[in-house]
Amino acid sequence: MQEQWGAKVKDIIFLDEFFLHGIPPAPKGKEKMNVLFSIDVNGILEVSAELVSNGNKRGIVIARSGNISKDDIK
């Protein structure tokens, strides 16, 4: 298990991105956000983020790409 946490920045694979708009100005550490990650047996990743104060929510589904191996997914 220790090897899993020994990842380096060079090993990171960029998959995709999404933006959560409507974040009101607030002092550092005051705005709370719930972020959820889920991956199914087929390697499909679901990521969602919700702003606690106003319920603004955004998410993305990332299906396995041809350039990512099953070992990379693990």
Produce a short descriptive summary.
The chain has 74 residues and is mostly beta strands. It has one domain: Substrate Binding Domain Of DNAk, Chain A, domain 1 (Sandwich). The chain is built from one helix and three strands, in the order βββα.
The largest beta-sheet arranges its strands as 1-2-3
Shape: elongated
Q: Taking Cα atoms only, what radius of gyration do you get, to the nearest Å? A: 15 Å
**Helix/strand-derived class?**
mainly beta
What's the end-to-end separation, in Å? 12 Å
Total number of domains: 1
Taking pLDDT < 50 over at least 5 consecutive residues as the criterion, the unreliable ranges are none
- The amount of beta strand, in percent, is 25-35%
Largest sheet: 3 strands, antiparallel
DSSP strand count: 3
What is the CATH architecture descriptor?
Sandwich
Overall CATH class: Mainly Beta
What is the CATH homologous superfamily assignment? Substrate Binding Domain Of DNAk, Chain A, domain 1
Average per-residue pLDDT, rounded, comes to 79
- Helices, by number, come to 1
Q: SSE order, as H and E?
A: EEEH
**Could you say what the CATH topology is called?**
Substrate Binding Domain Of DNAk, Chain A, domain 1
Name the helicity range. Answer: under 10%
Describe the model.
The protein is mainly beta and 74 residues long. It has a single domain, classed as Substrate Binding Domain Of DNAk, Chain A, domain 1 (Sandwich). The chain is 5% helix and 27% strand. It has 1 helix and 3 strands. Strands 1-2-3 form a 3-stranded antiparallel β-sheet, with no helix packed on it. The longest helix is centred in the C-terminal third of the chain and has 4 residues. The radius of gyration is 15 Å and the shape is elongated. It starts with 32 loop residues before the first strand and ends with a helix.
